[in-house]
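Researcher: I've been going back and forth with a colleague about how Methyl-accepting chemotaxis protein (MCP) signalling domain-containing protein might be arranged in three dimensions. Neither of us has a model we trust, so I'd like an independent prediction. The organism is Alkalihalophilus marmarensis DSM 21297, in case that matters for your notes. Sequence below.
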Amino acid sequence: MEEGKDVVKKGIDKVNLTGNGFTGILKDIQLMKEQTNEMNVIIDQVNQQSINMTGKIEDVAVIAEQASSSIQTISASAEEQNASMEGISSSVSLLNNLAQSLSGELQEFKVN
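Model: Here is an independent structure prediction for Methyl-accepting chemotaxis protein (MCP) signalling domain-containing protein. You can compare it with whatever you and your colleague have in mind.
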């Protein structure tokens, strides 16, 4: 009978030890669940920031395209103004030549 009590006591001890092991496992699972939840919150924040950054990058791209278009328009206007200035310069040079020629003829007219 004594031997039976020892076996039962050893069995109870093993069951208690196993129960303690499962309690430790349960605590570890709880801790992992909490850490996973914290990581999910952080991942959601990073995801939201990524979405915000993507929107800002798209906004910058639109502004860059508008600036590029404006620069092209300004460049075309500058080229047109340059061509106009060359035309004016050519006309001024022609008028200068005509004025010199006319002045020369006036000198000749006065002399005779």
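Researcher: What would you highlight for our discussion?
Model: I'd start with this: The mean pLDDT is 91. After that, consider the following. The first helix runs from residue 2 to 111.
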